[in-house]
Design a protein that fits this description.
Length: 345
């Protein structure tokens, strides 16, 4: 064994320079190959956008007699910017809580650091880091000292809500929202607008904000999705409505379908799980009566907040015995599909 080791040592000593050169060349070759592969991957995805809209149905949509071009027209020459989102950090949330009078409270950290929970007196707060979802509930109400406190009515609750979002949540985008008088409280639900187009949240849909004030202006509860939006590097030309209809013939086109059962059916069932979960391919004779452009925001894909077409209408489903009318919404990719990558589950 000692003789073998001595021969190896002698060989290395005699050929040290050659071995150093050989190792150096090998390292350089590996580095060049890695660089070439990396650049090709970059070139393959440059100018591409990622969507989390799914191609989850094999079936064509049953359009009935809907003519999308008549609903929307076919003038898609304007450019619409891409946006980038960044959900609020935990530090940002703690600044918000400080404004709400909740400070010096150590959070309980759950779900491997994704879920933070604060508790202070009658107020409970939960924040989900990955999605930017903040939930605040107070049994006694939270006084909002940062804005002028006033008796809140259906006439002034809108401006009061906007001031609250700006002063407390640092939300200064244009808004679209609805006010509901629940008898003693006012519930405001809505979302932000980017470049004058509504933002659809991948989970909460039209509700990025759900805020409740009492008549004294105190905050009773809120469930909000918080992110900062900024324009991306490119303006996008949309596919035309006629192109969209031809693309939707194929089940692998990125889209999301939302089916809601008529309330009379739910009442007849008495419990929500007594009817099957209808899928878009179960819906027949869809009649779309509205088409609009919205932005689709998925916190899991914050770098590509992209425009999509929102199709709204009704259709008919059968549970095997009776037919029922359902509301239908379809969010379909509006960007050239050649530039879209569908993100894996």
């Amino acid at each position: 064994m000692d003789k073998i080791l001595k021969k190896i040592t002698d060989f290395i000593n005699k050929n040290r320079q050659i071995l150093i050169i050989a190792v150096s060349v090998t390292v350089i070759v590996i580095a060049v190959i890695y660089y070439i592969i990396y650049r090709r991957q970059q070139e393959d995805t440059s100018g591409m956008y990622v969507t989390t809209l799914r191609s989850g149905t094999e079936s064509d949509l049953d359009w009935g007699e809907t003519d999308l071009a008549n609903l929307y027209g076919d003038d898609q020459t304007s450019n619409i910017p891409q946006y980038v989102a960044e959900v609020y950090s935990v530090g940002h949330i703690e600044e918000i809580l400080s404004k709400l009078g909740i400070s010096g409270v150590n959070p309980e950290i759950l779900s491997d650091g994704d879920l933070y929970h604060w508790s202070s007196g009658s107020t409970s707060v939960t924040y989900t880091v990955k999605t930017g979802d903040l939930i605040v509930e107070s049994s006694t109400g939270i006084r909002l000292s940062e804005i002028e406190q006033a008796y809140v009515s259906s006439k002034n609750v809108g401006p009061y809500f906007e001031a609250f979002l700006s002063e407390y949540l640092d939300v200064d985008e244009n808004l679209v929202y609805e006010v509901e008088d629940t008898g003693g409280n006012f519930r405001i639900t809505g979302t932000v607008k980017l470049s004058d187009y509504r933002v659809i949240h991948s989970i909460n849909k039209n509700e990025m904000f759900n805020v409740v004030f009492d008549e004294g202006g105190d905050l009773v509860s809120m469930a909000v999705s918080l992110a900062e939006f900024s324009k991306g590097d490119e303006d996008l030309i949309l596919v035309s409505i006629n192109e969209l209809k031809s693309y939707l013939v194929y089940g692998n086109y990125p889209r999301e379908d939302f089916i809601s059962v008529d309330s009379s059916y739910e009442k007849e069932c008495e419990v929500s799980d007594c009817y099957p979960e209808f899928r878009s391919e179960d819906v027949k004779n869809m009649i779309f009566d509205e088409v609009s452009i919205v932005y689709y925001f998925d916190p899991a894909n914050p770098d590509d907040v992209l425009p999509v077409y929102e199709l709204s209408g009704v259709g008919v489903v059968s549970d095997g015995e009776n037919d029922f009318e359902v509301s239908v919404k379809v969010w379909a990719n509006a960007v050239d599909p050649e530039r879209i990558i569908i993100q894996d589950e």
